[in-house]
Design goal:
The protein is of the alpha+beta class. The protein has two domains: 188 residues, FAD/NAD(P)-binding domain (3-Layer(bba) Sandwich); 145 residues, 2-Layer Sandwich (D-Amino Acid Oxidase, Chain A, domain 2), CATH 3.30.9. It has nine helices and 20 strands. An eight-stranded mixed sheet has the order 6-7-5-15-16-17-14-18. The protein has a six-stranded mixed sheet with strand order 9-2-1-13-20-19. A three-stranded antiparallel sheet has the order 3-8-4. Helix 1 links the parallel strand 1 and strand 2.
Length: 370
């Protein structure tokens, strides 16, 4: 039977999308979060909407499909979520790096992805503010973009309320009542909330939440950080939305995008050069490295360092679908939450409300680990 009341635990970009899609389909939705919408891993994410570095091909196709859903998703949220398009650019500075870059471009082109190479002269003309150095190859993907995940999560929560749902914030879930392979209710603060179905979309907290229902959900325990600068008065890029520095150098690898308020997000090294104890000095170092490639950022200062534990399943790919042992608990645990948020929200609503099993999600069921 179609569930009437669905409780979604987690108001980040993934949980928010699922709650919104369920509410839009007419379900009675309760959305719960231990904090505020989007203030976990969503807030720290580089928020690059792409299918470029997603392997194997089936996972690439999933991200590409979701990428194409973003405009419609943003329109339905009826809010400015900072959605920005323009594409992604990166380049190499060694012969081996050029071979690797061109090989990846050729593979993605064979999959139908809108990526191509540029000559150094074309790249310099396209983005005159980038100091490329000794370029050996350049790639440009014109379909990529980025978004503000916090705005998305806030908009999703707002739309859930508009559609008659309830949003409970700053309230951690302490227990999930289960009997005979069926979850009955959620204990959040001093409230016991009954539900026909429960969605676990708590980001890095999802393994703990799953444990409350007697479900084992593995976690790669990854940590990430991003640095936010003070706003710039001028646009940092002329055309592109995101830039990645050369991957064939021993230096820190930087991912850089400019937010809609003019501030710049820098994502460094292996998901952030700063660990849990990172300091403002570390942020200043990251900014200095960014100036090497983008002189236009030299007037900015470090405004904030964001840190969070990232939700990463053991094999790096999403866990999506109902748990086998607790049949009405739906799990949405993924790393690429920003790229996949529109698709996960829409697909989860179909599987929860219509009882369907979407073929494209079969490789991502929890049962693959058992």
């Amino acid at each position: 039977m179609r569930p009437e009341h669905v409780t979604v635990i987690g108001a980040g970009i993934v949980g928010g999308s699922i709650a919104f899609h369920l509410a839009e389909r007419g379900a009675e939705v309760t959305l719960i979060d231990a904090g505020q919408p989007g203030h976990g891993a969503s807030r720290v994410s580089f928020a690059w909407i792409n299918g470029r570095d997603k392997n194997p091909r089936g996972y690439h196709e999933l991200n590409r499909r979701s990428q194409d859903m973003w405009r419609r998703f943003a329109d339905r949220l009826e809010a400015d979520v900072g959605l920005t398009w323009g594409g992604e650019m990166r380049w190499s500075v060694t012969a081996d790096g050029a071979d690797e870059l061109r090989s990846r471009v050729a593979e993605l082109q064979s999959w139908g992805y809108p990526i191509h190479t540029l000559s150094p002269e074309e790249a310099a003309e396209m983005e005159q503010g980038i100091r490329f150095g000794d370029v050996t190859a350049v790639s440009f993907t014109d379909s990529d973009g980025h978004v503000d995940p916090v705005r998305v999560a806030v908009a999703c929560a707002g739309r859930v309320r508009q559609l008659g749902g309830e949003v409970i914030l700053d309230t951690p879930v302490e227990a999930i009542a289960v009997s005979d392979g069926h979850a009955h209710s959620v204990q959040a603060g001093d409230r016991e909330i009954e539900a026909d179905s429960i969605v676990l979309a708590g980001g890095a907290a999802s393994p703990r939440l799953a444990g409350l229902a007697g479900i084992e959900l593995g976690d790669a325990h990854s940590f990430g950080s991003t640095t936010i600068t003070t706003p710039l008065e001028e646009p940092l890029f002329s055309n592109i939305a995101a830039m990645h520095t050369p991957r064939d150098l021993p230096d820190s690898l930087l991912n850089i995008r400019q937010l809609s308020d003019g501030s710049v997000m820098i994502h460094g090294g292996e998901h952030g050069i700063m660990g849990r104890e990172g300091s403002r000095d570390d942020g200043d170092q990251l900014l200095e490295e960014a100036v090497r490639w983008l002189p236009g950022i030299s007037g900015a200062e470090v405004a904030e360092i964001r840190r969070a534990t990232r939700p990463v399943p053991p094999d790096g790919h999403p866990v999506l679908g109902f748990a086998r042992d607790v049949g009405n608990v739906y799990i949405a645990f993924t790393h690429s939450g920003v790229s996949l948020a529109p698709l996960i929200g829409e697909f989860a609503a179909i599987e929860i409300l219509d009882g369907a099993r979407i073929e494209a999600l079969e490789p991502y069921r929890l049962e693959r680990f058992t």
